Amino acid sequence: MHVFVTGGTGTIGSAVVAELLGNGHTVLALARSDGSAQTLERAGAEVLRGDLADLDALRSGAARADGVISLAFGRNYGSADALAQAMAEEGAALDALGRELLGSDRPIVTVSGTPWVPGRASTEADPLPTDGPVGGRGRSVTALLDLAEQGLRSSAVRMPRTVHNEGRGGFAGILVDAARRTGVAGYPGDGTQRWPAVHALDAAALFRLALESAPPGTSWHAVDDEGDAVRDIAAVIGRRLGLPVEQVPQEDFGPFGPIFAMDQPASSAHTREALGWKPRHPRLLEDLENVGA
Prior knowledge:
The protein is an alpha/beta fold and 293 residues long. The chain contains 11 helices and 12 strands. The chain has helices at residues 11-21, 34-43, 55-63, 80-101, 135-146, 170-182, 200-213, 230-241, 257-260, 269-275, 284-287; strands at 2-6, 26-31, 46-49, 67-70, 107-113, 153-159, 162-164, 185-187, 194-199, 218-221, 225-229, 245-247.
């Protein structure tokens, strides 16, 4: 399959490109810069220049492909307004990609986060939130999945709060960066709240499986760790960096603060059974032993 990939140089995207190429697919990847283009070419992908706001480039890439994996998201989301703008850009891109593929039986796989369900681990059957800090993404992904009723083979892989590789990435990676910046391995809330996690290479395998075989309109959970206590995550970070571990105000984490303070475990039991997905790389607390190495 010739696959058009957006966001192909990020933590998830670079792993997805390698997973596709390593399993007999070819890749056309969107690149917004010379550096991104060179990285993608070295990986073995064909490059299409453009960015997520260039809807004509997105339609062109989709038209040339047998399937699409959409991973790109704006890089500036340090404030609530910037996050809202990034989600609006993503929504317009998903709509353009989806409508280009309507009625063609060519698959599109997009990305979102696992939902939060009070009192239990979320499952693939739970809807995404359509209000709150990340409601815009929920609305965009839901709209893409709803296009299945019009003949689009759309699916979504929901990512946990931390997608990691060599101790980097996701919410845990933000804690690492904050610890290095402030001199404290801080955590919001009381630290008992749980974050799900997955290794980037395991997530990449699930994107490939969804592309190849997911039924239209379906959602899947790329979750290996159902939920690690944030205090335990911070403790590993503090030990690896030689820093004190302390509770800090959730406001220290900007627009992510309210999300960071929530207990949000997630299950992937249905995904494993239905698609045969089997995570095999290090789990989060083990992978964080690479911090400071």
